[in-house]
Write a structure and sequence with these properties.
Order of helices and strands: EHEEEHEHHHE
Pathway: Cofactor biosynthesis; tetrahydrofolate biosynthesis; 2-amino-4-hydroxy-6-hydroxymethyl-7,8-dihydropteridine diphosphate from 7,8-dihydroneopterin triphosphate: step 4/4
Protein name: 2-amino-4-hydroxy-6-hydroxymethyldihydropteridine diphosphokinase
Largest sheet: 6 strands, antiparallel
Enzyme class: transferase
Radius of gyration: 15 Å
Distance between the termini: 18 Å
GO molecular function: 2-amino-4-hydroxy-6-hydroxymethyldihydropteridine diphosphokinase activity
Mean pLDDT: 91
Low-confidence stretches: none
Structural class: alpha+beta
Helix content: 25-40%
EC number: 2.7.6.3
Strand content: 15-25%
């Protein structure tokens, strides 16, 4: 079984879409570990704020199958196939890490956003602080400690999951 880390984000009815996305991930991958929820300004375009978090699961699927599953979940929750990269979205699921794999295809791993975007790095550092980035050879806690926190606005938000909802 491979340990995967997934970035989740939404700025269109984000509470609804993140809950639905997490429920779908739970069905596909089993129990999830979750970071806190963070709010951030849109990066790369002008738009409403995003809610972001990171989840972790285990899978026996290969990388291509995991990514295909994410695309299907996104489409099931209203994301339009072929939508431009920097735009509002109902649900964005990105594979950040697949064990310690470093690859260029079928996707680039580890995902570059880990070290470039606070909305990915902070929740990942919270969820897996001692895990070592397989390329830069630093823990995610250290990467977050060294990150220029003035470069992107990000703050934790209180998020109450509906009663009975488990991941």
């Amino acid at each position: 079984m491979a340990r995967i880390y997934i970035s989740l984000g939404s700025n269109i009815e984000p509470e609804q879409h993140l809950q639905a996305g997490l429920t779908s991930l739970r069905v596909c991958f089993g129990p999830l570990r979750l970071s806190s929820m963070y709010e951030s300004e849109a990066v790369g375009f002008s738009g409403t704020n995003f809610l972001n978090m990171v989840a972790s699961a285990e899978t026996d699927l290969n990388i291509a199958a995991v990514v295909a599953q994410f695309k299907q979940i996104e489409q099931n929750h209203g994301r339009l196939a072929g939508a431009k990269k920097f735009s509002p979205r109902t649900l964005d699921l990105d594979l950040l890490l697949y064990d310690h794999v470093v690859c260029q295809t079928p996707v680039v791993l580890p995902r570059a956003e880990i070290v470039n975007n606070a909305f990915v790095l902070w929740p990942l550092a919270e969820l897996a602080p001692e895990l070592i980035h397989p390329v830069v050879d630093k823990s995610y806690a250290r990467l977050w400690q060294e990150y220029d926190k003035n470069s992107q606005r990000l703050w934790p938000v209180t998020f109450e999951w509906p009663p009975g909802l488990t991941f």
